[in-house]
């Protein structure tokens, strides 16, 4: 997945906000600038785009040791259910998009009820 495709896909999801932070990470949030993060990507040059996303406990347990996937650095070490795709060996771009969409849904659930109602999420 290219950075342009990643950004275009995330931008097409409802009520998203994009920011570049943490040393050049492409960060996507749901619910505005102070919303909840649902996807983070770093362009690793020749190594490709590394995409980090929130997931369910079941997905985390099933995928964390698959080739090209790993528990997300920093986030998973703090007990959060986030994975990072480093390459497409076990997860192609279509599947990655499905997981990003689910991450968006999971993050939206953590917004306040007032914000979810206002945004119809």
Indicate the mean pLDDT.
Answer: 95
Biggest beta sheet attributes = 6 strands, antiparallel
Overall geometry: globular
| Strand line-up in the sheet with most strands | 1-2-3-4-6-5
Strand content: 25-35%
How much helix, percentage-wise, in residues? 25-40%
Low-confidence stretches: none
How many DSSP helices?
4
Distance between the termini: 27 Å
Provide the succession of SSEs: HEEEEHEEHH
Tell me the radius of gyration: 14 Å
Using DSSP, what is the number of strands?
6
Content-based structural category: alpha+beta
Helix/strand layout:
Layout: H1 3-12, E1 16-21, E2 25-30, E3 36-43, E4 49-54, H2 57-63, E5 69-71, E6 82-85, H3 93-109, H4 113-119
Antiparallel strand pairs: 1-2, 2-3, 3-4, 4-6, 5-6
Folded structure, characterized:
The structure is a single chain. With 121 residues, the protein is an alpha+beta fold. It is built from 4 helices and 6 strands. The protein has helices spanning 3-12, 57-63, 93-109, 113-119; strands spanning 16-21, 25-30, 36-43, 49-54, 69-71, 82-85. The chain has a 6-stranded antiparallel β-sheet with strand order 1-2-3-4-6-5. β2 and β3 form a beta hairpin. The radius of gyration is 14 Å and the shape is globular. The two termini are 27 Å apart. The mean pLDDT is 95.
Salient structural properties:
single chain; 27% strand; 34% helix; 6-stranded antiparallel β-sheet; alpha+beta; 121 residues; globular; 4 helices
């Amino acid at each position: 997945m290219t950075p342009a495709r990643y950004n275009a896909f995330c931008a097409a999801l409802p009520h998203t906000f994009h920011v570049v932070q943490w040393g050049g990470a492409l960060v996507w949030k749901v619910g505005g600038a102070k919303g909840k993060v649902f996807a983070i990507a770093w362009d690793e040059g020749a190594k490709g785009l590394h995409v980090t996303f929130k997931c369910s406990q079941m997905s985390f347990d099933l995928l964390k040791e698959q080739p090209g996937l790993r528990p997300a650095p920093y986030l998973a070490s703090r007990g959060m259910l986030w994975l990072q795709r480093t390459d497409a060996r076990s997860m192609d771009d279509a599947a990655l998009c499905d997981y990003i969409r689910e991450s968006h849904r999971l993050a939206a659930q953590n917004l306040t009820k007032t914000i979810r109602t206002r945004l119809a999420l």
